Amino acid sequence: MPDTSPLSAAPVLAPYPVWPPEGARTLGVPPFLDAGDEVMWRYRDLGWRPGRPESVAPMRVVRDDEQGLVAWLAPGTVQLTKRYADGSDLRDVPMAERFLRDAQRVQARTRWRGAGILRIAPAELPWSVWLFWDVPEGDHPGDPAAHDRWTFEGWYVNLETVHRRDGRDTCTGDHVLDLWIEADGTVNVKDADELEAAVEQGRGTAEQAEAIRHNGRHARASFAAGDWPFDESWTRWRPDPAWTSPALRDDERWDIDLVD
Question: In whole angstroms, what separates CA 17 from the centre of its chain?
Fold first, then answer.
């Protein structure tokens, strides 16, 4: 993904379609949620339909306006993820067959491990930006007294279908390829081999993969230009100490429970 790649064409908002709820709208369009409201951040695979597993993270709204959605995934949040019946994860499967077993995945209830994540989905762009902090050993990531000791680690750029909103749900689809931008600005491309495997195993087409790579170049250029939300103000952000962790809704379902 060289820096000199031409970027005359706009980003491809949906290299492959993701099934949204009927009547869903794009981010940046009112009505907006208030700070502190709960929102469900949903990832749905290519060809997803109701009843198939998805990733669902209950999150707390930080900001929701014309620029996009900013939300906080708190440490220890109970969420829904896609696993195999034995509890193993996609990355436990060898690359040569990783996308051949999609139909075998089931819905699992799991717990987010580690420090919290600030996720920012800019309106009408096919990626979200995740901010990560290092929490010193011995400090609990959910302890507000430790906030001043957090150290910003970097930005994870998750390439994905442009979000569609319906009430308190925001729906997108993961595009496999990602960027990890270290705090010093070093850009690393992640999972390029996995994107190639996805095409080889029928998860997508070569044309869709090239659109995803094109979007990755756009995201990299956006960071280099200092576009929102790649600004230092978010690296200094901290969650409201009064916030509690949102819960999954009562109507959510899962096949296996991996919450200890």
Answer: 16
Tens of pLDDT, residues 63-108: 999 999 999 999 999 999 999 999 999 889 999 999 999 889 999 9
For 129-169, write each residue's pLDDT tens digit.
Answer: 999 999 988 888 888 888 999 999 999 999 999 999 999 99
DSSP, res 194: H
Who contacts 185 (Cβ-Cβ below 8 Å, separation ≥6)? 223
Q: Tell me if residue 235 falls in helix, strand or coil.
A: helix
Beta strands in the chain (DSSP E): 25-26, 38-43, 55-65, 68-73, 78-83, 106-111, 117-122, 127-134, 151-160, 164-166, 169-172, 174-182, 187-190, 256-257
pLDDT in tens, 212-240: 999 999 999 999 999 999 989 999 999 99
Give just the sign of the alpha carbon dihedral 46, 50, 54, 58: positive
For residue 136, give both structure tokens: 């010193």
State the sign of the Cα–Cα–Cα–Cα dihedral 110, 91, 177, 44: negative
Degrees to nearest 5, angle at CA 181 with 37 and 138: 65
Q: How many CA atoms lie within 13 A of 14 on its CB side?
A: 16
Report the pLDDT value the prediction gives residue 4, as an integer from 0 to 100. Answer: 43
Beta bridge partners of 71: 61, 119
For residue 77, the tally of other CB atoms under 10 A from its CB is 22
Q: What tokens does 222 get? A: 């956006």
